[in-house]
Amino acid sequence: MAVIGFDPVRRSWVTEAEAKCKNAPLPIPGLDGQLVTDAASIQEASQDFGYIIQRTPFAVLRPGSYQDIVKMVRYAGRNCIKIAGRGEAHSTYGQAQATGGIIIDMRLLNDVGTPTPGGVWVEAGATWRAVRDATLPAGLTPPVFTDYLDTTVGGTLCVGGIGGATHRHGLQIDNVLALEVVTGDGRRMTCSPTQNPQLFRSVLGGLGQFAIILRARLKLIPARTQARVYRILYPDAASFVAAQTTCALDERFSFLEGQLVPDGSGGWLYLLEGAAYYNPDAPPNDAALLAGLAPGATIEEFTYSDWLSRLDPTVAFLKSVGAWTLPHPWYDVFLPGSEAASYVSTTAAGLTAENTGNGPILFYAYRRSKLTMPFFQSPCEEVSFLFDILRFAPPVPAIVQQRIDENVALFQQARDLGGKRYPISSIPFSQSDWIQHFGSDWFAFVFQKQRFDGDNVLTPGHGIFGTP
Ligand SMILES: Cc1cc2nc3c(=O)[nH]c(=O)nc-3n(C[C@H](O)[C@H](O)[C@H](O)COP(=O)(O)OP(=O)(O)OC[C@H]3O[C@@H](n4cnc5c(N)ncnc54)[C@H](O)[C@@H]3O)c2cc1C
């Protein structure tokens, strides 16, 4: 059902049929795409991967062009309506939602241009899987992929985008050459490190607060064809953190991640996962890669492409048993390296199959000096750690609330130690939490908000500038 205008008195959308019996709705500008209000579209846009928060928008924009986004962002500003981009909505706590607002379905803008050694233009709604599929045949690859390839380029460029190559190359936001965006005040602009650099540096990791990303020019590097994967178990967090720290600093692996795995008797082991990317004419030196690490490594070979999509079978299984649409009260934080071992071992002692829902627990090192964007918040230490409890919960509100409460309690401890929230997670945040989150960057964040989205129309779901 297409809408033709907005009734500013009733604050509701007006369809063609309704317009006959209502006074002068504010007309929707002519669009190449559509603004829809049908129940299925609204229902989808009210939900995300968390299945915890539901906020109902007035309408969903299915953009047919970049100009549609310009027009609707301006329209939203004139009518005091919130507006937010939505990728695949893999956020877990309403970050891509907008009560009574407009949701832009970015998935319709998903073109991937021709990859060259100088980079590739990619529309914001394209998934990282589509980027992989377009770039590898040209022998090129973005330096950093998320573990799961069906996140969108626009979505991860708003939040950061961390992966196993982050200890070498930074986040996905650190590997962008240019952006084309629509600012919150409706200006279509191109930005890069040299053109409108403040806009560029604000949007990347800026949580959708300054602009809607239309497309990004991604950095590409030569791709290797193979991935040799080394898995090494550690009995405790302290020895694991020491090994991760060594590997993060000497960059021996192309890919470095880790996770907690059950030890079979109610406790946890710590699994270091390193990968060397290579071409068959130059295989990696196993002894050099494993030097100084715990004995007993297992080694497995993949093609680079298959390694990037290694989660596919697990995701297919989770979908087949209905677990994909269970609530996901995820806990995602960054920890300073000096506190990581004691914090994680203490936290792990309280983790069970019941309170994690058997979801994976990720724990791996990255280097702060590789991060370049000002609004992405990380602990101060050079070696810091991602710690994720990727919980699954039964669809029982009281249990979901219990998991959220556990996240809050865990986060308070992490924050006291210098930890930072990864803003994809299910941790309720008030404005004072955000002020604390940004610390000395808060005033710059507010300044850029006033500069590019002075009417505060963009991306209310994080609750940074008002109740979501
Ligand atoms: C199975 C799984 C695995 C994951 N693995 C990783 C991982 O390895 N590393 C990692 O960093 N993250 C990971 N994530 C988290 C993921 O990065 C976030 O969920 C992130 O939000 C991207 O998802 P999305 O593209 O669906 O974005 P959405 O959730 O749709 O959007 C994220 C935010 O960006 C805004 N937004 C979206 N598109 C635009 C746009 N074009 N312009 C302006 N604002 C926009 C939204 O309003 C929202 O605030 C994983 C998530 C899942 C479900």
Helical content (DSSP H or I, runs of 4+): 25-40%
What's the domain count? Answer: 3
Q: Main beta sheet: strand number and arrangement?
A: 8 strands, antiparallel
Strand order of the largest sheet: 17-14-16-15-19-20-18-21
Associated small molecules:
flavin-adenine dinucleotide
What is the CATH architecture term of the largest domain? 3-Layer(aba) Sandwich
CATH superfamily of the largest domain: FAD-linked oxidases, C-terminal domain
Tell me the number of helical segments per DSSP (H or I, 4 or more residues long): 16
Tell me, what's the shape?
globular
**Uncertain segments of ≥5 residues (pLDDT<50)?**
none
Termini Cα gap: 26 Å
Rg computed from alpha carbons, rounded to a whole number of angstroms: 22 Å
Structural class category: alpha+beta
**What fold name stands as the CATH topology of the largest domain?**
Vanillyl-alcohol Oxidase, Chain A, domain 3
Mean pLDDT: 96
**Total strand count, please?**
21
State the CATH class of the largest domain: Alpha Beta
Strand content: 15-25%
Structure explained in plain terms:
The protein is an alpha+beta fold and 468 residues long. The protein has three domains: 3-107, Uridine Diphospho-n-acetylenolpyruvylglucosamine Reductase, domain 2; 109-222, Uridine Diphospho-n-acetylenolpyruvylglucosamine Reductase, domain 3 (2-Layer Sandwich), CATH 3.30.465.10; 226-422, Vanillyl-alcohol Oxidase, Chain A, domain 3, CATH 3.40.462.10. 29% of the residues lie in helices and 24% in strands. It is built from 16 helices and 21 strands. It has helices at 16-19, 39-45, 66-78, 128-135, 153-159, 166-169, 197-203, 237-250, 286-290, 304-308, 312-320, 337-348, 353-356, 397-416, 431-438, 442-452, and strands spanning 3-7, 12-15, 26-27, 34-36, 59-62, 83-86, 102-105, 120-123, 140-141, 176-183, 188-191, 211-218, 221-222, 226-234, 255-262, 268-278, 298-303, 331-336, 361-367, 383-389, 420-421. It has an eight-stranded antiparallel β-sheet with strand order 17-14-16-15-19-20-18-21. Helix 8 runs antiparallel to helix 12. The longest helix has 20 residues, at 397-416. It is globular. The chain starts with a strand and ends in a 16-residue tail after the last helix. The relative contact order is 0.13. The site of flavin-adenine dinucleotide (FAD) has 34 residues, from strand 6, helix 5 and strand 12.
